[in-house]
Amino acid sequence: MNRRGRSLLALLGLLLLVLPSVADNYVLSLATLFLFFAYTGQAWNILMGFAGQLSLGHALYLGIGAYTSAALFSHFGIGPWAGLWLAIALSSLAGVIIGFLALRFSIAGVYFALLTIAFAEFARIGFDHFTWVGGSGGLFLKVLQREQIDLLNLRGTPTVFYYVILTLAAVAFLACSWLMQGRAGYYWQAIRENEEAAQALGINVFRWKMLAVIISAAMTSLAGVFQAFYYNNLFPEQVFNIARSIEIILGPIIGGIGTLFGPIVGAAVLTLLADSATELVAALGWDLPGLKQLIYGVALFLIIVFLPHGIWPRLARTLKVPQ
Amino acid sequence: MLLAAGAAGLAPFNIVRAQSGKLRIGVLLPKSGLQGLIGQSCQKGADLAPSVIKDLLGIDIELMNADTETHVDTARTRAERLIQDGAHCLVGPFDSGAAAAIAQVAEQRGVPFIINIAAAPQITEQGYKFVFRNFPVASELVRNGLALIADLFRATGAAARNAVFMHVNDTFGQANAKAISALMPQLNLPFRLLETISYDPAAKDLSVEVAKAKSTRADFLLLVSRLNDAILLRREIVKQRWNIMGIVSPGSPGMYEKQFYQTLGKLSEGCVSNVPWFDPKAALTKSVDAAFRKQNPRDQLRFHALNVGYTFEAILVAADAYKRTKSTDAQTLTEAIRSTGITSRMMLGGAIKFNAKGQVEGNLSACIQNQGQQPVVVLPKPSAEAKPNFPWSEYRRA
Amino acid sequence: MPADFINLANVTISGVLTGLVYGLMALGLSVIFGVARVVNFAHGEMMTIAMYLALILFTSVNVNPFVAVLPVAILFFFIGYFLQLNIIQPFISRPEHAQFILLLAVAIIMTNSTLIAFGPDARSVTLDYLLESVEAGPLLIDRGKLYAALIALGAAVGLFSFFRFSLTGTAIRACADNWLGAKVAGLNVQHLYAITFGLGSACVAVAGCMLVLLVELTPAAGPAYTLLAFVIVIVGGLGSMNGALAGGILIGVAEGLAGLWLAPSAKSMFSFALMIAVLVLRPRGLLGNKL
User: Fold this and answer.
1) What is the ipTM of this complex?
2) Whole-angstrom Cα distance, residue C119 to residue C117?
3) B259 to chain C: which residues are within 8 Å by CB?
4) pTM above 0.90, yes or no
5) Which CA distances in Å does C226 have to B311, C109, C151, C193?
6) Domains along chain A?
7) Contact C125, C213 (CB under 8 A)
8) From residue C184, how far is each of B83, C84, C166, C276 by CA, in Å?
């Protein structure tokens, strides 16, 4: 990364760090959403951008992470810092199962995507009947009184949650950056570019693809833990929903698959787009439900048609920063 | 960078809105997405509120409407935005998931939040100090509903021995099912439940479920459903020639909504729903009805009774509190809401009075029967608009 | 006959009939993928629009769906043709995720356009004579499902004949088997792809016109149908026409039986489990060609 890139990155980091002290709660809530999707997008990107597998059921890992930590907290009083380990373990296990099935039986491309959808849907309906965690009636966590901060149990003000997700997103960014420059990154790139050649060169394709699946699943589950404690209620219908899976992948695809900054740029653009669409509709004074989503859909359409590799590569060229 | 610029760019709207001195009420409802239909129905209750409240209490209120898009993330950010833009209190959001999300925002910001409709009991069990709900929780809803069934049978002389219970397997359906299984043994009802069948809310075909229900040979169908499934079930009952006494709901939407009549025509006749409803004889109901007809000339209040009524009452609570304290300060307003005691109301039940958890106890249900392709209050007798008619003429003992 | 057996027979027949209608919908998807290798994630939304069209024709000019089927199918053929040629064609060579997002964007635009145009009210077409079930001995067959299934079958047979016997159909099959060879032989591949997409869309339109008699229609109905179409097509075999119909019948019956014997609210879990099993054990599906 050249000097220009580094200074831009530092500027971004600084801005995000001081945001809570200059922005109001509304902008903060938007920023939290942006960071949430930047983080999950980054996690998904590992599987897609690095290992080349299109997963359309990533909400599965979100849900497992969320429900595991929430159930531990509400039934046994185990806090999220301890609970997240089990969340990661279970999520990785799910990833291993899916990865194993896919790799062992050569399920790739659109078939793999459908496999992931099936698993997520299966989980959604399954959890609807899983009464120990509330079934379709939902799982509610006890909330503390306002202004009280209990970091141990992740209870606190929106600012607290903002810094938590900021940390997660920053760590994910650094981790991906480190991975990309290391052996894992090279092997993944090789596998993505030409799997057979990579295999011929002696790279254990199975092992590295599996690793991508597991890392992606584990990272996503942490976002689930965050979600459980930020919203304090979980419904299988919302948590495992395919719409959630789609939201996760929109960021990296719009921003640029396989790049480090793609998920971040994508998440920022989408959050801003959604909010601008709402503001536009409100400013025009048209009370037409569905208009905002229509604008969103049209924008999405235009981006994918005219910027097929995502926004980041074009943006990077303009800013004269290497990708 | 982009976000801050965006927010700064939008600031002028804030300045303009912050200058009026009225009570500003943020109305959060799902106007698009899966719950869009119900949200838009509730919105009608909000839209007529300012004029009715001006006549009733002599004060001016300003509504700030927001669409939660039936999406929890949106509900949360919209709530933040409304408070940012100067809403003194929040009202809404029909959906239990959104209610829980908004409740946290309200609690964090110390802004009162009055829930119009949401049956999940946990929301008022989480210890919030700024959240209020004027709607019966699932157990109360079901208790009233089941009791009314007994009243219905007594009033019509129908001798139903047993029922089959079908319910939609979503948040609402499960809450009701739980309440029913807890209450049935306590209530000493004249009928018993032969079987419980739950079905997928997204199911497009309920023939299997009805076949199962039919083979129980029950006398009538106890149903907790949504609109779409209610329509599907009613048709399926005819197709499979299941000649039961009738369909009775202990407290769920569907059978009294406009589309039910429009789609089913005469098939909609006789279905019974025991739901919270307006008191047809109350003075406030008449005022609201007049305002409703002015704003919706081709519609009728009774097709939106529940949605409009409770949304209106939520706004009424806020306006009433403001009138008593003349202050829009959040803490004062909240305390004023906490000490609400509105006796002259629109919906059936005791006074609007919040208990320590912010919940109103004593909201009652009415027995609503479909007669002449519209919902009509048949019980309790003092509020009745017509006599109940049960069972269906096609009834054949199984 | 014992009541249980009657129930079983009724549920199975019902499953076969609805399976045929959903099978037709899936057929459209399968044909599109088998030939043009486009994964149409806006499939359910397209069907929803067809359903709304049939509804409007019924409520405004009193044309019942059985008659409306033909004009709506023709209209959708042209819509599909146009969509493929102008919008989707450039994406065929692009990676899957790009195709997916494109069609997802199209789906979002379609869903919300219908919401704005028609409002969120649930609607359907009610024809009184369809409420009269057909009696076959002790069995009761849903008349609406019966007629819908017959039309779906008719449309499927029509499509099969087209691909089997007509010149264009043969040309399309050639494209599917060997794209490069077809181009070398001088076939206008783009035009043929567009025709295929048009045919797939016409299938979906017919299925939609039939479904509007059986279910409740809301603007948000699309995604569930898309998912169902995919489940059927995977189980039956992506790219196989017989497979789509067979898959439809299989899923229809399986869901019915799962509902009868297990918990009705979990019956779709069964379909997803079946899809996973097929993906793992026999990815080409029941009747698909070897991948």
Assistant:
1) 0.85
2) 6
3) 121-123
4) no
5) 36, 15, 21, 21
6) 3-11+29-319 (1.10.3470)
7) yes
8) 66, 22, 21, 39
